[in-house]
């Protein structure tokens, strides 16, 4: 079938919105008409060749939409079902068996390789294969094909179009707090970076009943939004020593920190802000694949600090995304406050607006 897709054609360059061809779903796959797709920093770093990904490529990994067709082996979804798309996983390795599919043995080939595990791509242009299957979906498009395992049925209505970010950025921030770090009620937390991931962490921490939720974020409007969403304190890192500012609020430091900016200097500050036995969760991706964090070993041992890498908030997709939808419906996870919608055709304007900080999370509507 003919679909409309935004193609990444060159690093650091505009997307090109074109008509391309989409094949039929394989036995284990689902064809989804995309109602909306979030724009994530990760889409841009892959366009910009953080790791080599052949271009042109259809990126997009925060899609939500309506099932249009299912492959012959899919028995538990039907056309008309409303779904959120997440990342792909194999379903048969040790971590998948533990319901931690974001640590799947096949995470990298299934999400970054640009093709199905059998090497084929569902998308072509003028008869030539286009890099697709990005995070098992490639949803910067009117339609996407995904594996059954990364399609999550949700109860949605008019708001289906904004639900795609639950499949990446929002579950990353919320899951860091609720699952990976499992911050107890009454614990203290600092969140570094007030983008979609950081603000999802703030909302989750309020829901969990954290006693102090300190948001460190340079943009005033994002700090103000953070306070509305649950931050008890905000710090502008432009005003000086952030670790000292945190210790002025909590002399022992924080029990937990979530680092969502991806900047090494911020990770060092986060580490310096921890109380003894404190844990730092790293979710922000640094600009270069080789970036590294130096850790003082004596300090790490003396204070029992823990540094934990977190991908996709340890989400199990099928359980956690419906849980987040339920929290949203109950008013505990008002992620709609972060979102601004743009037509998919205006994807380049949306990238520029998000870059200028005019919106926290852009969602593109095909
Ligand atoms: C990404 C972050 C980099 C590792 C894979 C998952 N999260 C989504 O954008
Ligand atoms: Zn993402």
How is this structure best described in words?
The structure is a single chain. This protein is an alpha/beta fold and 366 residues long. It is built from eleven helices and 18 strands. The longest helix has 13 residues, at 196-208. The strands form three sheets. Strands 3, 5, 6, 9, 10, 17 and 18 form a seven-stranded mixed β-sheet that branches. The chain has two domains: 2-167 and 334-365, Quinone Oxidoreductase, Chain A, domain 1, CATH 3.90.180; 173-311, Rossmann fold, CATH 3.40.50. Bound molecules: cyclohexylformamide and zinc ion (ZN). The site of cyclohexylformamide has 6 residues, from loops.
Key attributes of the depicted protein:
single chain; 366 residues; alpha/beta; Quinone Oxidoreductase, Chain A, domain 1; Rossmann fold; 2 domains; seven-stranded mixed beta sheet; six-stranded parallel beta sheet; 11 helices; binds cyclohexylformamide; binds zinc ion; zinc; metal-binding; GroES-like_sf; aryl-alcohol dehydrogenase (NAD+) activity
Question: Can you give me a brief rundown of this structure?
Answer:
Its EC number is 1.1.1.90. This protein is an alpha/beta fold.
């Amino acid at each position: 079938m003919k679909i409309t897709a935004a193609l990444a054609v060159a690093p650091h360059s505009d997307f090109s919105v074109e008509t391309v061809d989409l094949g039929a779903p394989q036995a284990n796959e689902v064809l989804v008409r995309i109602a909306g797709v979030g724009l994530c920093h990760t889409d841009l770093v892959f366009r910009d060749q953080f790791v080599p990904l052949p271009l042109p490529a259809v990126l997009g990994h925060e899609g939500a939409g309506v099932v249009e067709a299912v492959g012959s082996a899919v028995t538990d979804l039907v056309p008309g079902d409303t779904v959120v798309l997440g990342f792909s996983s194999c379903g048969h390795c040790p971590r998948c068996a533990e319901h931690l599919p974001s640590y799947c043995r096949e995470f990298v080939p299934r999400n970054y390789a640009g093709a199905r595990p059998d090497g084929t791509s569902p998308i072509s242009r003028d008869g030539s294969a286009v890099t697709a299957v990005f995070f098992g979906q490639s949803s910067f498009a009117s339609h996407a094909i995904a594996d059954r395992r990364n399609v999550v049925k949700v109860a949605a209505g008019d708001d289906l179009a904004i639900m795609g970010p639950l499949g990446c950025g929002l579950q990353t921030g919320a899951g860091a707090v609720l699952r990976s770090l499992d911050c107890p009620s009454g614990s203290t937390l600092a969140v570094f970076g007030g983008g979609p991931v950081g603000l999802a962490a703030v909302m989750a921490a309020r829901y969990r009943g954290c006693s102090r939720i300190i948001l460190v974020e340079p943009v005033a409007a994002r700090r103000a939004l953070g306070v509305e969403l649950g931050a008890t304190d905000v710090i502008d890192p432009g005003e000086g020593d952030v670790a000292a500012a945190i210790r002025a609020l909590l002399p022992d430091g924080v029990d937990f920190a979530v680092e969502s900016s991806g900047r090494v200097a911020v990770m060092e500050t986060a580490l310096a802000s921890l109380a003894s036995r404190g844990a730092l969760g790293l979710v922000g991706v640094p600009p270069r694949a080789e970036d590294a964090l130096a850790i003082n070993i004596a300090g790490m041992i003396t204070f029992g600090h823990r540094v934990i890498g977190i991908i996709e908030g340890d989400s199990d997709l099928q359980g956690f995304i419906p849980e987040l939808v339920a929290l949203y419906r109950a008013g505990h996870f008002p992620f709609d406050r972060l979102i601004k919608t743009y037509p998919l055709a205006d994807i380049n304007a949306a990238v520029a607006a998000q870059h200028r900080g005019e919106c926290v999370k852009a969602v593109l509507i095909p």
